[in-house]
Amino acid sequence: MKAKVKRQKAKVRTPSTRQVLFTFAFLLLPFAFLACEVDERRQVTPEQQAAIDRVTEEIAAARDRELYDGAADEWRAVVTAEESRDNLERVRTRLGRVQSRALHTGTEKETAAGPLTGHSLVVTYQTTFERGTGMETFTLLERDGRWLLAGYTVTSDALK
């Protein structure tokens, strides 16, 4: 005795135009935000590099007070002179002097609002120190034609 198998046609549901547009818009949304961001990637200018070199020299020479006093107001609004000194001393003690750097990313922006208003530059380097490696990030702001330090961070396993 053979069993009869009832076959049904599978209903194939085609998406509506509205569903297709929604899916398309959802997938492209992250790219739309990237396209709207004012973000220019370019090489560091000689003036910007001079500011980074000056900061590096002041850190290496433990001229923490000069670095703090010459920094942008945004730096001093976030950290006290003592906190700045302690953080820089920790980098010097655990990692030592900078031996070499390779530019990882550099982003220059012009913004009208936010924590970093005006012309800013964020540069990240893959850095080799005397006693380890890490990622160094400098945030600079242009004020009256001069590039001032607004942020400095080092990420390294040696600092943990």
- How far is the first residue's CA from the last residue's CA? 76 Å
Strand content: 25-35%
**Helix residue percentage:** 25-40%
* Main beta-sheet strand count, sense and barrel state: 5 strands, antiparallel
Give the strand tally.
5
Q: In sequence order, what are the helices and strands, one letter per element?
A: HEHHHHEEEE
Core attributes:
160 residues, alpha+beta, five-stranded antiparallel β-sheet, 39% helix, globular
Record the SSE blueprint:
Layout lengths: L16 H20 L3 E2 L4 H15 L3 H7 L2 H6 L2 H15 L2 E14 L6 E12 L2 E12 L2 E10 L5
Structural write-up:
- By secondary structure, this protein is an alpha+beta fold.
- Helices cover 39% and strands 31% of the residues.
- The chain has five helices and five strands, in the order H-E-H-H-H-H-E-E-E-E.
- It has helices spanning 17-36, 46-60, 64-70, 73-78, 81-95, and strands spanning 40-41, 98-111, 118-129, 132-143, 146-155.
- It has a five-stranded antiparallel β-sheet with strand order 1-2-3-4-5.
- Helix 3 crosses helix 5 (81-95).
- The longest helix has 20 residues, at 17-36.
- Residues 20-41 have low confidence and may be disordered.
